[in-house]
Design a protein that fits this description.
Blueprint (H helix, E strand, L loop, with lengths): L1 H17 L2 H16 L4 H18 L3 H24 L4 H15 L3 H19 L4 H19 L6
Helix pairs in contact: 1-3, 1-4, 1-5, 1-6, 2-3, 2-5, 3-4, 5-6
Length: about 160
Amino acid sequence: FEARIILEGNLAALAAERSKEEHHAALAEEVAEMFAAMDSPSEYLIHDVLFHRIISQASGNPILAALMETVTSSMYDKRRRTVERSIDLRESAQMHRELYRAIRARDPIEARKLMEKHLRMAQEAQGMERPVERKSSVSVAKPKISRLNSEPAAS
């Protein structure tokens, strides 16, 4: 999620600065579709992915948009499992609506803040560890590895 937060936060800010009316219309349509699809998690995810794709395109930076496609592809299965387990997608849809409004209002600071907040909420929903926690779990594993090299304990 760290990569998504860094990349998509900046894409949202750029979209707020550079987006065109057709991007705003497309974002509004995807938000409406998310609200309409709240009872169908798989359909909801399609509109969620399209919403984020439109933001990356609205950034006006094709290289960052291509990076975003790579990230989206690599995480799609995890996102699908998370959305399928979701009980209520209303909070997520509302967050997307707020993000759309910030982009339409051409407020890059608010757009970045909302995207980062949205992704942190998604990270919590997915139950993923933060990088700091991963480092501590690696150090816990090291003593086990060193025990493999030591002599077996007497029985």
